[in-house]
Amino acid sequence: MRSLLPFVADLPLVDHHCHGVVTRDVTRADFEAMLTEADAPSPLGTSLFDSLIGLAVRERCAPVLDLPQHADADVYLERRAELGAAEVARRFLRATGTTDFLLDGGFLPDALTTTPEFAGLAGTRAHDVVRLEQVAEAVIHGTTARGFAGAFADELGKRAETAVGLKSIAAYRVGLELAGSPPSASEVEAAAGRWLAAGGGRLADEVLHRQLVFTGLDLGLPVQFHVGYGDADVDLRRCDPLLLTGLLRATRGGGVPILLLHNYPFHRQAAYLAQVFEHVFVDAGLITHNAGFRAPAVLAELLEIAPFGKVLFSTDAFGLAELYHLGTALFRQGLSDFVRAALDAGAMSEKDAVRLCALVGHENAKRIYRLEHV
Amino acid sequence: MRSLLPFVADLPLVDHHCHGVVTRDVTRADFEAMLTEADAPSPLGTSLFDSLIGLAVRERCAPVLDLPQHADADVYLERRAELGAAEVARRFLRATGTTDFLLDGGFLPDALTTTPEFAGLAGTRAHDVVRLEQVAEAVIHGTTARGFAGAFADELGKRAETAVGLKSIAAYRVGLELAGSPPSASEVEAAAGRWLAAGGGRLADEVLHRQLVFTGLDLGLPVQFHVGYGDADVDLRRCDPLLLTGLLRATRGGGVPILLLHNYPFHRQAAYLAQVFEHVFVDAGLITHNAGFRAPAVLAELLEIAPFGKVLFSTDAFGLAELYHLGTALFRQGLSDFVRAALDAGAMSEKDAVRLCALVGHENAKRIYRLEHV
Amino acid sequence: MRSLLPFVADLPLVDHHCHGVVTRDVTRADFEAMLTEADAPSPLGTSLFDSLIGLAVRERCAPVLDLPQHADADVYLERRAELGAAEVARRFLRATGTTDFLLDGGFLPDALTTTPEFAGLAGTRAHDVVRLEQVAEAVIHGTTARGFAGAFADELGKRAETAVGLKSIAAYRVGLELAGSPPSASEVEAAAGRWLAAGGGRLADEVLHRQLVFTGLDLGLPVQFHVGYGDADVDLRRCDPLLLTGLLRATRGGGVPILLLHNYPFHRQAAYLAQVFEHVFVDAGLITHNAGFRAPAVLAELLEIAPFGKVLFSTDAFGLAELYHLGTALFRQGLSDFVRAALDAGAMSEKDAVRLCALVGHENAKRIYRLEHV
Fold it and tell me: For this protein, what is any one GO molecular function term (chains A, B, C) (predicted)?
């Protein structure tokens, strides 16, 4: 491993997209189920520790639990159980060097820490990102087709008062091919009517996902989109960020930031959008920990054409405390390798390198989410 | 060149997808026509030896024929002719260190060795993979629209008795956007009727390709799919493995392995499918020899998120004996470079490295194709 | 930075696709607006100097203006203004080592040098590439729906007399999914009628873009296509070169070269087309300067399967004199890094390396555009 450059090792980070952590103890099966985007190890394959992320856990997480690097998976899990999940969470979250976590609490909230609990474990600040679809799915049962748009806007406005950003998971439900203009009131009413007639539940309607996004943009809060890589529930082909081109073109004058999350394996496409659309920002969350020691290679591809003022850091960590640590440590490794390669090539000065790292590590996020004002 | 790690140099390999070898002597024109996926050198371009694979032949194959590295193409072909094609085949096949070859004998069988002939030349085991479309095209002329499904299933059942796997070339004929459920009996009958009315011949009908796949899955044998890179006959855009998402989702509970072959340049997409669908496996055949000294870069991308229990080795070599040797040698190079980079970075232990190589080199294939039972 | 191999440093280059240069003085805002594919720096982001291309300007261009490497952007622009745009253009163009520039003069011609002016500044040869759409948009107003096809062919024939190639920007207007056969006379007439009825102006009609291409191919001049990466005006998803597969299949027997420009991030797809279609050629223009010190990584990906007889050099530089210099210097860096890596790996001989560089640097372009005959 190339050692980290000192100014990368010490860089304060804003993790602009992650989720709560699990504080109950987990079995090996639970652990493997949360480790990657697979639901569980395959009976046709082998342990999910047989992967770059599995190796990264044993390399980079074991020492945080006082074990030698590359400790066996069973030894690792035994030690984890011995320390208890809360202590494990505390150790990993505090090892990150993250000053602000932005938490999307909209997925499986009952199994995870709340934002205040998370902040307590991490010993630092945590902020809310509101998942648009969760609000809509809560609102739909107490309203009518005609009333849905207003009820959603009201509830979102309330939720947004204490939030720093919003998030759309349209990618998971209908894909990213959202039309480039807000739906009309009658289109929304008709779609809400269909949804109600189907009994509410899981939202999956292009008109409504789009309506949520445009309502969110009206509030002026940054809107995050799940893009690319995810679990088997996703149709990855419909998660290419280029499918958002029409919507991005339609919203570029509005001054509200749109953040494309994850993006792998379409991260070069996302970087293109970040270069040409003034309100588009990108990260490489989720893949950073999944790709283990290959994370630096992916990050370098993202940085080819994305302006440094448009790239953010996130882990997209969910559930396992290890993922916050890995996502952060591997991001630092990637950033350090990237600027060191540039420094070695004479392609930037050290002053440039420090500036680039500060932008990507925390300055862009603080500016976009107005974290000084929180 | 970084030297191979000893445990990679000596690794027994299972080549889970290749074809027969040509044992007639070949002219320079023949050789170039079989070297890459181009039909022939272009009158507008230059020799196809002007490519990474051409350079790899002169670097890595020349010594096997007792020539110095980088011997000129004409000198190389002269020496090849002098030794005779059978001796050349023997030398290259035996240089691979492959213990088991799985041969798809369904393309141009008259020009190539049979499986037993191949095994004799290679001095090792060779197994049959049955090409679904070849069986269908043989069966259609002796049956009726209504009888087709049964006749195909019967014939495939017979052929499968001595085979270890099946293969679909739907990608070449209709692309990979196959629907996620088996066609109904009446749909199959109607499609077979259209095919018969058109005189049989080359199958290219989404309903029937899908029917072949589902019939194959019912037999419980692993089903290989051509994915991605191929010759000019392919519409590469329709060969993105993500197009199979619906079919993969529909078949994930069945316990029958599905193997995505080649995959370039969609290998990261394929790796995603291998991570999230328990029955999906991937390789980087065909591109490994075509990319010459860049093969390690491609293999490293495949291994970012594909679990090591889901990655197999194949050459997809066809015709030219050199391609078995190149595909194998460059795979070893890529695997060695990958684990050496991880070892250098402290990202895995040597024990992990040995395990990873054994899984990818032969253990996954032996498990999936049940090669111990053959 | 790895130093350039001597035979790469001295390699004469043919820049087979670029545009005129701006000779008026530019403000910082103008400069940033022309630096990348963004229209302007984002009020939500930071300066566009915060990017790999921005760093490359300060690293590689500053010394040409007698400044130290990594000079601050403001210092750089001050020095630029002091020298004057014409002197700046002269310095950068003459620093390239390019013997022949092929200029597409069809975009914003009034703001840029003409081809003879450009040749004077560069002190070398410059040739015309005719933009098909510009000719059509000039012709439409003086003709009828029925007369359009003939009027276009006549005018193009005249313009082509002194040109070495043609260019289609269908990608920018309707995307690359052009059908695989020339439109019929009546289809062209109907489309021209619709265009006239809409008042002429900006052409965006699949039938007519296709008609322009087929008319161009009839003239026997190489036809360039914008592919992939471009500004916010492009719908990048419709610029995948694989969308051209049908048209390429239909035109492969004709012996007229088709050149896929830029291609990023679809450069591996483009390389596939260059391998399997005898009349298809590729480059990595535009991304070479945008990716700064990452340009070598992109070029290496292009060269994985593209035969060396099918790869050309271009900058796609437009407006800013720096871009010709950067595109050229970073191409040399990429080529040098690529062959040095191959030499270090023993994957080619030095004789091979010299040949590869000559082909890609100028020989392929001279052969395809018949530059000896100009």
Answer: hydrolase activity
A107 within a domain of the structure (yes/no): yes
- B43–chain A Cβ distance below 8 A for any pair: no
Cα distance between residue B262 and residue C172, in whole Å: 32
pTM score, two decimals? Answer: 0.98
Tell me, yes or no, whether A18 and A63 share the same domain.
no
Neighbours of chain B (3+ CB pairs under 8 A): A, C
Tell me how far apart the alpha carbons of residues B320 and B178 are, in angstroms, rounded to a whole number: 32
Q: What are the structure tokens assigned to A259, written together?
A: 């953040």
Q: Pick B268's closest partner by Cβ from A46, A265, A292.
A: A265
Q: Is A74 on the interface with B (CB under 8 A)?
A: no
Nearest to B48 by CA among B56, B36, B57: B36
Those residues whose C-beta lies under 8 Å from the C-beta of residue B373, and which sit 6 or more positions away, are: none
Q: Are residues B30 and B179 in the same domain?
A: no
A135 and A119 share a domain?
yes
Q: Does A267 touch chain C (CB under 8 A)?
A: no
- Supply the range of the domain harboring residue B164: 6-22+96-373
**Across the A/B interface, how many CB contacts are shorter than 8 Å?**
116
DSSP 8-state class, residue A21: B
pLDDT digits (tens, 9 = 90+) for A127-161: 999 999 999 999 999 999 999 999 999 999 999 99
What is the ipTM metric for this complex? 0.97
Do B205 and B219 fall into the same domain? Answer: yes
At C14-57, the pLDDT tens digits run 999 999 999 899 999 999 999 999 999 999 999 999 999 999 99
Nearest to B332 by CA among B17, B11, B1: B11
d(CA C304, CA B298): 9
CA distance C301 to B287: 12
Residue A366 CA to residue C56 CA, distance in Å, equals: 27
